[in-house]
Design a protein that fits this description.
- The chain is α/β, with parallel strands linked by helices.
- The chain has one domain: 3 Solenoid (UDP N-Acetylglucosamine Acyltransferase, domain 1), CATH 2.160.10.
- The protein has four helices and 19 strands.
- The chain has a seven-stranded mixed β-sheet with strand order 2-5-8-13-16-18-19, with no helix packed on it. The protein has a five-stranded parallel β-sheet with strand order 1-4-7-12-15, with no helix packed on it.
- A hairpin with a 4-residue loop joins strand 18 and strand 19.
- The protein is globular.
């Protein structure tokens, strides 16, 4: 028989009030509090807490507090990922962020979903859909990435966008809902 955790990660309906899931969220909140209350010069402590909290953390990762994550164990970060202040991550389903990706202030990555129908929603049923963000992506301030979205490599998402559908590699996309504005002609060009 599947556990509620297995159902959650698989994208099946699950009960978030399950004791294992409740304990996991509590653990995450304790670790997030430790991370957020660390002094700015306590870099080793912050990294230690993140290594304990996250499912995977590449080298050179930097997250500015305050930072909040629902479980932490379902968040997988490649090398040199950067998150600015006030990022909120609801990692009920896995979230993979590729190397070199940067999230501006107030970005929200939300995998949790609730039924459209009132009765199951009232009963507390939830489900979740994974988010995948490629390498070298720039996500502007206040962006919301909705459940089930994939964002391709080297893409730029404009500030304030709400990303409800997949966005391919090498584009600039903006708006609510987020739409492709233009293609990036030379995505590997080096700075002059």
């Amino acid at each position: 028989m599947e556990t509620e955790l297995e159902k959650m990660i698989a994208g099946s309906p699950y009960d978030p009030k399950d004791s294992e899931l409740t304990a996991m969220r509590l653990r995450s909140r304790v670790l997030c509090r430790q991370f957020n209350q660390a002094l700015p010069n306590e870099k080793k402590l912050r990294i230690q807490v993140l290594k304990e909290l996250l499912g995977e953390m590449g080298t050179g990762v930097w997250i500015e507090p305050p930072f909040q994550v629902d479980y932490g164990s379902n968040l997988f970060l490649g090398d040199n990922v950067y998150m600015n202040f006030n990022c909120v991550i609801l990692d009920d389903a896995p979230i993979h962020i590729g190397r070199g990706t940067m999230l501006a202030t107030g970005v929200q990555l939300l995998t949790a979903e609730h039924p459209i129908e009132a009765a199951p929603r009232r009963a507390g049923v939830e489900y979740a859909s994974a988010i995948t963000i490629g390498e070298d992506v720039w996500i502007g301030g206040g962006v919301i990435v909705c459940p089930g979205v994939t964002i391709g490599d080297r893409t730029v998402i404009g500030a304030g966008s709400v990303v409800t559908k997949n966005i391919p590699s090498d584009v600039v996309a903006v708006g609510n809902p987020c739409r492709i504005l233009r293609v990036i002609d030379n995505p590997e060009q080096t700075a002059q």
